[in-house]
Amino acid sequence: MSTAPDTPALHIDLNSDLGESFGNWTMGNDNAVLDLVSSANIACGFHAGDPKVLLDTVKAAYERDVRIGAHIGYRDLPGFGRRFINYDADELLAETVYQLGAIKAAAAVVGAEVSYVKPHGALYNRMATDNYQAEAVIGGILAVDPQLKLMAMSGTPVVGEARAAGLEVIEETFADRAYTDEGRLVSRREPGAVHEDIDTAVAQAVAIATGNSFTSINGNPVQVAGQSICVHGDSRKALEMVEAIIAALQKEGIAIC
Predict the structure, then answer these.
(1) Would the pLDDT of 50 be above 60?
(2) Neighbour tally for 199: CB within 10 Å
(3) Residue 244 neighbours by CB under 8 Å, 6+ apart
(4) 66 phi and psi angles, rounded to 5 deg
(5) What is the rounded distance in angstroms from the CA atom of residue 53 to the CA atom of residue 18?
(6) pLDDT per residue as tens digits for the range 128-166
(7) Where are the alpha helices (DSSP H) in the chain?
(8) In angstroms, rounded to a whole number, what is the distance separating the alpha carbons of residues 139 and 137?
(9) Residue 253 contacts by C-beta under 8 Å, 6 or more apart in sequence?
(10) How far apart are CA 12 and CA 209, in angstroms?
(11) Looking at the predicted structure, is the pLDDT value of residue 209 above 80?
């Protein structure tokens, strides 16, 4: 279980997974969400997105002064990067480099910079506790740009591994995902893993930002702490959820930045 901060935050980062449309198929309402969030995790074409979507989303984020993150994932478009894949370490490192190269080039074209890396889906969850895949991704990040931060699940082993390797880490929490009693995300294979109810997500976001407990999947109090809160862009209620979370945090005197 993560330890909550001693004092409530006066500001917190709000991020969302964006740039996940493909060709003529549209996912989410990226431009509207970009008007609200402070950080954008932009798909790099392996789990979602395509070259034009990537470039357009980077440009849209830059125009709104939203921090840009590389949302890298397994090379698994059909599975949306949510199926676990066992990789050779050199292959995973190379695919990390490849995806970072794509988004950094798109950023350079529009005059923007990529600030951090957030792995997606199955890779994100696997890295949290799997040293083998974590080392490969961390190695790829360091090879491309050691100044890039890693956004990782709050309180998991990968946080310490990345810091020991020399990366700055943004510890991430989730408004729209259920947690276990131990402060870990409930697997998407389990019922109730994703919060569809806006009020539940809002209450969880406020609890995280203020250092208070919320209710775990088992009905017990749990606390998690971090510098960033995520709302998934592929949620059908993502825009409403982000708007409601921002309004609730503002009432608590907490800014999004």
Answers:
(1) yes
(2) 11
(3) 198, 199, 201, 202
(4) -95, 135
(5) 10
(6) 999 999 999 999 999 999 999 999 999 999 999 999 999
(7) 30-34, 51-63, 89-110, 121-129, 131-144, 157-165, 198-210, 238-251
(8) 5
(9) 10
(10) 7
(11) yes
Residue 60 token pair: 């849209």
Contact 40, 16 (CB under 8 A): yes
Which two structure tokens, joined as six digits, stand for 95?
A: 């695919």
Cα angle for residues 79, 84, 87 (degrees, 5° grid): 115
Alpha carbon of 97 to those of 86, 125, 127, 138, 145: distances in Å?
Answer: 18, 19, 16, 10, 10
d(CA 95, CA 199): 38
**Which residues are bridge partners to 171 per DSSP?**
152
* First-to-last C-alpha distance (Å) of the chain: 26
Structure tokens given for 195: 């919060």
Tens digit of each residue's pLDDT (9 = 90 or more) over 20-49: 999 999 998 999 999 999 999 999 999 999
Phi and psi for 121 in degrees, rounded to 5? 50, -125
Q: Are 42 and 70 within 8 A, CB to CB? A: yes
Residue 8 pLDDT greater than 80, yes or no: no
Kindly list the distances between the CA atom of residue 49 and the CA atoms of 69, 152, 170, 176, 178, in Å, as whole numbers in the listed order. Answer: 14, 21, 24, 22, 26
pLDDT cut 90: percent of the chain above it: 91
Q: Kindly list the distances between the CA atom of residue 20 and the CA atoms of 102, 112, 114, 228, 253, in Å, as whole numbers in the listed order.
A: 15, 19, 17, 20, 32
> Rounded CA gap, 241 and 176, in Å?
9
| DSSP string for 183-217 | S-BPPTTSTT-B---HHHHHHHHHHHHHT--EE-T
In sequence order, what are the beta bridge partners of 193? none
